[in-house]
Amino acid sequence: MTLVAILATSLSMFAQSPWSMQNVGYNYNSSYPFDIDAVDSNIVWNCAGVGDGSGISTQEFSMTTDGGTTWTAGLVTADTNFRFANISAVSGNTCYAAMYNNTLGGGGVFKTTDMGATWNQLGVGSIFTNAASFPDVIYFKDSLNGWTMGDPVGGYFEIYSTTDGGATWTRLPQANITNPVAGEYGIVNDFTVVGNKIWFGTNKGRVYISYDGGVNWTAKSVVSNVNTVGSLAFRDTLNGVCTKSTTAGVNTFYRTTDGGITWTQITPVGPVFYSDFAYVPGTTVLFGCAASATGRGSSYSADDGNSWILVDTNGIGTSDGYTSMDWISPLTGWAGGFSADPLTDGIYRYTGSAVGINQITKNTNLTAFPNPTSGLVRINTNYEGVVNVNVFDILGNIVTSFESYSTKVGLSVDLRSLSNGIYSVQLVDLTGKSSVAKIVKTN
Fold it and tell me: Assuming Cys at both sites, which of 72, 234, 340, 408 could form a disulfide with 240, CB separation 3.0 to 4.6 Å?
């Protein structure tokens, strides 16, 4: 049985949608999670857009520390003309937001350290101060180190970095960034990160790539410079997907196997939803969702977008579909919806069977010693080079993930911090090749 068939069988057992409705807590009716950032299976933040066609700005956000059983909503203390570009959550206390001024131009970066009770603008007078400034993205890999990107000002993209949690910022010099073409700009929240590699899309059919965590950037063309590159998603440093969208709302699907240097158009088979794409960590499963005139619902692909299987249409709380998504593990993910009122709807948690877990249990082709182990185990591999190591528990949750270097005699994995039980240790090399060892952890 193929992986696609296995996953189809897995999801077909649900008589209803595997998405479970939660109350996001937004006060403005028809608000929706524009961006979702899950820290782990309990801590999730999101920021709001308004979907009623009014065009008003909103500063609403919502967060949970109990997996979505309860959500706490609030407002970022910003100019009422400010809208979210995206958010970057670090913990249950700390989150960053990039916001642009929809009326006057410019924008800012905001930070909370008290679960959203208060927000402070960072870098006032030093970042995004020009009327032409337009923040598109903010990303923090931990509580201290982050970067933010905005449209070109002064002839090159406005990219800043910080190493002290946003207290001070340094603009990247023009020499480090490929110059934009005429009229080129970024797209809000259109980026993705894998390790030290970063990608963001533009309205001129290009993807900017950094191989060193944002210090240097080069641009590669996906399509002609009259189309927007959107919905970027990568499952490792080489394999990724994106879409081309026209002003008429026509979407075309592209994929890369060399980290974004070259792109190939593919014609997907099955229902594709183009609003947002996200890979499920530790798997080759790509989820897509949409809440627009081009489609409403969710589906997934196990072969990097070539073929798609329907999960559901419209959504279960309303008939409006899903706006965005983020995944933590094969068992845990969230998708945005539309709030009917402050007490109803707005976000969904995935409660279905483990997505992609079959590929872990079917491809057990590595050996480990000792096995059973009390914690330290040697994995014998055929790899030589950098690999991503994912450790899954018996339910398919990722319990730890890290980057390591494998030699021809293998690599060591430390399971001492984990409870006794059965685990799957998955190794993924830079080409996307994956192998797994099943290990029993004992005292």
Answer: 234
Domain 3-355: CATH architecture, name and number where available: 7 Propeller (2.130)
Cβ contacts of residue 247 below 8 Å, gap of 6+?
none
> What's the pTM value of the predicted model, to 2 decimals?
0.79
Beta bridge partners of residue 208, listed in sequence order: 200, 219
- pLDDT per residue over 176-222, tens digit each? 999 999 999 999 999 999 999 999 999 999 999 999 999 999 999 99
- Burial-class residue 179 by CB neighbours within 10 Å (0-12, 13-18, 19+): exposed
The three state secondary structure string of 373-401 is ECCEEEEECCCCEEEEEEEECCCCCEEEE
Q: Please count the other Cβ atoms lying within 10 Å of the Cβ belonging to residue 297.
A: 19
Place 356 in a pLDDT band, splitting at 50, 70 and 90: low
Ranges of CATH 2.130.10.10 domains, the chain: 3-355
Distances (CA, A) of 385 to 250, 257, 340, 404: 41, 18, 51, 8
In CATH terms, the fold of domain 363-441 is: Immunoglobulin-like (2.60.40)
Residue ranges, comma separated, of all CATH 2.60.40.3080 domains in the chain are 363-441
Q: How far apart are the first and last CA of the chain?
A: 37
Is residue 233 within 8 Å of 239, Cβ to Cβ?
Answer: no
Q: How far apart are CA 110 and CA 62, in angstroms?
A: 15
